[in-house]
Every structure is written in C-alpha cells, then in structure tokens.
Amino acid sequence: MALSLFAIIALVLILARAVAELWLSRLNQRHVRAHAHEAPSAYREMIDDATYQRSVDYTLAKSRFGDVVTVFDAALLIGILSSGVLPWAFGVFITAFGKSVWAMAGFLFAMGFALSIVSLPFAWYAQFKLEDRFGFNTTTVKTWVVDRLKGVLLAVLLGFPLLVLVLKLIEWTGSNWWIWAGVLVIAFQMLLMLIAPAVIMPLFNKFTPLQEGSTLRERLFALAKRTDFPTRSIEVMDGSKRSHHSNAFFTGFGRFRKIVLFDTLVAQLAEPELESVLAHEIGHYKKRHVVKLLGVSIAGVLVGFAAVAWLARQQWFYQAFGFEYHTGFAAVNVVPAMLLFALLAGTISFWFSPLIHLWSRRFEYEADTFARTTMGDAQPLIQALRKLTEKNLSNLTPHPLYSGFYYSHPTLLEREKALRTPG
Ligand SMILES: [Zn+2]
After folding, report:
1. Least enclosed by CB within 10 Å: which of 76, 206, 242, 413?
2. Which residues sit with Cβ closer than 5 angstroms to ligand 1, an ion?
C-alpha cells in the first residue's frame, strides 16, 4: 500500500507529539538536575535535605518512566496504523458477526479492550514499582485486580449500551446523527455526574461522614454556611487504601452534592489548613469554574462527533488506512472513523493542552484568592500547600516551559507569590 497523504499526516502528527513530549521531558529533567544540590531558597526552612533529594529522585524516576511510555505509545500507534491490523480485524468481525449495530459496538469495544490490555504492564509498573519505591503505594495486588475488573464491568454495563445507542442513532437520524449522538453523550455524562457519588464511587471507596460533634466537622460546616455553599455531607474517603497521596474534591449536583476529603489529607493537615483547602474548593464552585469546565467538555463532545461525521464521509480517509467503504450510509462506515478518531485525536488535542492548562491555572489563582478572602488570612492555605507539596514529593523546580505546558495548577512558588500579593 502506497502511503497516502492522510497516512503521512497521521505519521507526522504522531511523531511530532512524541518528539515534543520527549524534548519537554528532557528540558525538565536537566532543570531539576541542575537544582538538585539544594532546594530553592524560599523552601529551605520548609523541607529538609533528605526529603528534597527524594523529591528530585521521584521527579526524575517518574519522568524517565514517562519517556518510555511516550516512545512505546508512539511505536504502538504507528504499528497499529501501518500494519493493516485494524481493517483486517474489522473484516474478520464483519464476517463472523455481520454489520448489525450490536456487532459494530462489539468491535469498538473489543478494540478498546485490547488496547487497555497492552497498557496494563505500564500501569502495574507505575503502581507496584515506581510508587512503591517512594513509599506511596498502599494498593494490594487484590485491590488492583478487583479495581480493573470493576472498571471492565462498568464499561460493559454503561459504556456498551451507550455505544449501541449512538450507533442506532446513525440509522435513525441519518446524516445529522452526530448532533443527536453528541446530545445523547452529553446527557449521559450529566447523568453520570449526578449518580456517580451515590452509585459508582462507593464501588471503589468507603465514604464516612465526619464524626458528629467533632471540632473539624463543626469548623467545616461553619465555613460552608459562611460561604453559602449548601452541602449535606462532608465525608472522608479511604484514599489510603491505594496511596499515600492526598486530595480533596466536591462532587455531584444540588442535593446530591458532597464534599470529600481523603483520609490522607485529614491526617496530614491541621484543622485551619483543612478549612483553607475546603475554602479553595468552594472557591471553584463560587467562581462558576465547574459550569465553565462543563461547557468546554460539552463543546468538546460536539466537536469530536462533528469531526467523526466529517471523516466518515471521506473515502480517501478510509483508503488511507486500508478500510473498505461500504455502500450506503450506515454504522459500518462510521465505526472505522470513530476508531481512527479515538486513536489520533490525542495527537491534535495535545497541542491545545497548554491553553487549557493556562485557563485551569487561572481558576486555581481565583480559588486561592477566594480562600484567602474567606479565611481572612493567606497563611493557612500557604501552610497547607507547602505540606502537600512536601508529602507528595512534588517537583519544586520544574522548567517553566514544562510546567507551562503540562501543569493544571501553578507551582508552589507561583501560588505563594500570588497569595502574598494583596488585591
Ligand atoms: Zn483547585
């Protein structure tokens, strides 16, 4: 098969992303190594030499592992697309199961499953070797295996019917199918957000309401009330079941909303610090960040489906990757486009990630400012951020280009500076 223009474009996109990722990673590793002998002056009192050294080692180990994954992913993608394995598997599937919507959904599902199997050894290594070496891993082999089985089960129970319905819409609604499919997927996402705290998250973790009458509970509910943030419950999640890393978030809508603190976070922070973290989370809600992010995700779904619908009409696109174009408009002609889109979309969206992260960092500053105003003092949040940085062995000296590209949160130095600047 001669390389068509589109196959060449795909190859360039895959290589360009891989090269950019490796280059940024190298830049960052060098920067970290250059500062490895001593912590930045602002943090010398906060972090001891041994801990700083461990944060350097952890950063470099994660970064080197990430490089291996980058190279493997690019090679795998090029291998999959150039070997003709996809059109071959598609042909085998059609011969065996026909072109029904169920068979087509089954094909997409089987491909997704096969790809996730390939990435399993990396997930295993990251958890049981890398995280373990730095004392973060608390996941048992059993928990790890059961987590994955639950994931597959959820995908079968929720994802598969959704996929079938999307493909059915192609038959029912014709060439405007992508609008209907987009609306369906968005509605499904909203439903998931609504039911996840009650139905899905408890499958993986235990949630315990903060002890009635405890000073922490009173302090946090007083904060929720003061900031007019209606919440029914503040719960502690057993994050320590999987890792020593710590976090906090809120989830759900309206009366289903709950604030969740990792047990690891509760253990690491003092009460005023926990309050400031919660104030930061409430800030995200008050500044309507959640709604804005939802808007972006809705736009993303619609753009994605529009792209798939457009690609599905291009015969050259099919020929480029060795797929046969079937006569008549049906799911059988859209499914290869969906598959190729799923494989290649990341090579384009990668270049937009700095913009998304820039936006996300602005939200973080706004939430920090909200927390400072609510607490009347920046100190508790600064203390909390410092502790979290230290406990999670976060990189204190990322290269500015690297953090600018990848970081959804400003660095500790940047956040402290903003928190100390009045206004
Ligand atoms: Zn935040």
Report:
1. 206
2. 364, 367
Q: What is the 363 CA–ligand 1 centroid distance (Å)?
A: 7
Token pair 């223009």: residue: 5
Task: Give Cα 396 to chain centroid, integer Å.
Answer: 22
Q: Which of 275, 281, 364, 366 is catalytic?
A: 281
Residue matched to tokens 């089987």: 110
Q: Which of 235, 275, 364, 368 is catalytic?
A: 368
Query: Any catalytic annotation for residue 368?
Result: yes
Half-sphere exposure of 361 (CA within 13 A, CB side): 19
C-alpha span between 349 and 201 (Å, rounded)? 28
Please report the sign of the dihedral spanned by the C-alpha atoms of residue 294, residue 171, residue 112, residue 15: negative
Q: Which residue bears the tokens 């609008």?
A: 179
Please write the tens of the pLDDT for every residue from 124-180: 999 999 999 999 999 999 999 999 999 999 999 999 999 999 999 998 998 899 999
Query: CA distances (Å), 127 to each of 1, 57, 100, in order?
Result: 41, 16, 40
- Spell out the residues 6+ positions from residue 396 whose beta carbon is closer than 8 angstroms to its own: 35, 39, 40, 43, 47, 52, 55, 389, 411, 412, 413
Torsion of CA 212, 213, 216, 218, to 10 degrees: 100
Instruction: Count Cβ neighbours within 10 Å for each residue of 293-308 and write b for 16 or more, e otherwise.
Output: eeeeebebbbebbebb
Q: What is the average per-residue pLDDT within 382-411? A: 94
| pLDDT interval class at 329 (50, 70, 90) | confident
* Three-class DSSP category at 180: helix
pTM: 0.89
For the chain, the C-alpha Rg in angstroms (whole number) is 24
pLDDT of 307 over the 70 cut: yes
Pairing of strands 258-262, 248-251: antiparallel
d(C-alpha 322, C-alpha 175), whole Å: 23
Phi, psi angles (nearest 5°) of residue 232: -90, -35
